[in-house]
Design a protein that fits this description.
It contains no helices and 11 strands. With about 120 residues, it is an all-beta fold.
Length: about 120
């Protein structure tokens, strides 16, 4: 069992930056791949970034490539999403999730409660 708590969301102007954090409970955090997802109002949930258990492999949606960076610190049971050059279309609730593989979107088992990111133009 893994419990996830996101933090770091907020209101930022276009072009600004935010860093989201996701703190995990449980001693098995390092065995899970982690992903960041987002869901904008009226839209389907989208996977924006994922990272394997060691941090050696990362994956990004085309819409955020070059602007967002996912990383993890297994000693701190935390995964991060650094978001730079934010755009109004990045506005969404951001969720972190844990699963067996970074690329198997349907296999993510554990989810946080989400944190709101709002980018003003």
């Amino acid at each position: 069992q893994v419990q996830l708590v996101e933090s770091g969301g907020g209101l930022v102007q276009a072009g600004g930056s935010l860093r989201l954090s996701c703190a995990a409970s449980g001693r098995t955090f390092s065995s899970y791949a982690m992903g960041w997802f987002r869901q904008a109002s009226g839209k389907e949930r989208e996977k924006v970034a994922a990272i394997n258990w060691s941090g050696g492999n990362t994956y990004y949606a085309d819409s955020v490539k070059g602007r967002f960076t996912i990383s993890r610190d297994n000693a701190k049971n935390t995964v991060y999403l650094q978001m730079n050059s934010l755009k109004p279309e990045d506005t969404a609730i951001y969720y972190c999730a844990a699963g067996p593989s970074p690329v198997l979107t349907a296999a993510y088992q554990y989810w946080g409660q989400g944190t709101q990111v709002t980018v003003s133009s």
